[in-house]
């Protein structure tokens, strides 16, 4: 027979695992956004770098149009880069779909937010009290140190 405390611990453990998995997915989403940004940056840069020259004005001579082997390879590069970008976007979509659905209705979520805010406020007040106590103690220590230093300076040397 399972006791209620064991059930509470198991439920708490499962909740912690659930939170960990959500955080892991969020980290993966952040990494995927970075990957997409890097791919887009590199794709646009490569397209700009490898674009064939264009005629700016009739005052300038026509740019050379020598299709070389390298030009053929350059033509394949945008296809490869765009497919990598699409693949990264699909992975991002898969991660978004893996996110757990919001638990409960909006009222329950708002209630939970209010509870967390109240808990945060209580912890903030406790931290403020501890900070004030630490500052008071620091001031006392500084006064005692100053007094001890003054006493040492005022002591007469033995003859």
Automatic annotation (TrEMBL):
Subunit structure: Component of the Mediator complex.
Lineage of source species: Eukaryota, Viridiplantae, Streptophyta, Embryophyta, Tracheophyta
Subcellular localization(s) per the UniProt record: Nucleus
Major location category of this protein: nucleus
One GO CC annotation: mediator complex
Domain of life: Eukaryota
Keyword vocabulary terms for this entry: Activator, Coiled coil, Nucleus, Transcription, Transcription regulation
Alphabetical GO biological process terms: regulation of transcription by RNA polymerase II
Annotated GO MF terms: transcription coregulator activity
Keyword Hydrolase set for record: no
Family that this chain belongs to: Belongs to the Mediator complex subunit 21 family.
Function description: Component of the Mediator complex, a coactivator involved in the regulated transcription of nearly all RNA polymerase II-dependent genes. Mediator functions as a bridge to convey information from gene-specific regulatory proteins to the basal RNA polymerase II transcription machinery. Mediator is recruited to promoters by direct interactions with regulatory proteins and serves as a scaffold for the assembly of a functional preinitiation complex with RNA polymerase II and the general transcription factors.
Coiled coil residues, start to end: 113-151
Keyword Coiled coil among UniProt keywords: yes
Cross-referenced Pfam families: Med21
Name of the molecule in the record: Mediator of RNA polymerase II transcription subunit 21
Organism: Nepenthes gracilis
């Amino acid at each position: 027979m399972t006791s209620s405390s064991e059930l509470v611990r198991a439920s708490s453990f499962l909740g912690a695992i659930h939170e960990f998995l959500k955080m892991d997915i969020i980290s993966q989403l952040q990494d995927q956004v970075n990957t997409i940004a890097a791919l887009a940056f590199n794709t646009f840069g490569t397209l700009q770098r490898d674009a064939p020259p264009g005629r700016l004005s009739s005052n300038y001579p026509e740019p050379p149009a020598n299709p070389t082997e390298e030009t053929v390879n350059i033509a394949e590069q945008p296809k490869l880069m765009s497919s990598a970008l699409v693949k990264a976007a699909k992975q991002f979509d898969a991660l978004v779909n893996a996110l757990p659905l919001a638990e409960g209705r909006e009222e329950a979520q708002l209630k939970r937010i209010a509870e967390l805010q109240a808990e945060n406020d209580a912890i903030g007040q406790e931290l403020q009290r501890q900070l004030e106590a630490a500052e008071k103690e620091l001031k006392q220590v500084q006064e005692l140190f100053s007094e001890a230093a003054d006493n040492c300076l005022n002591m007469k040397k033995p003859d």
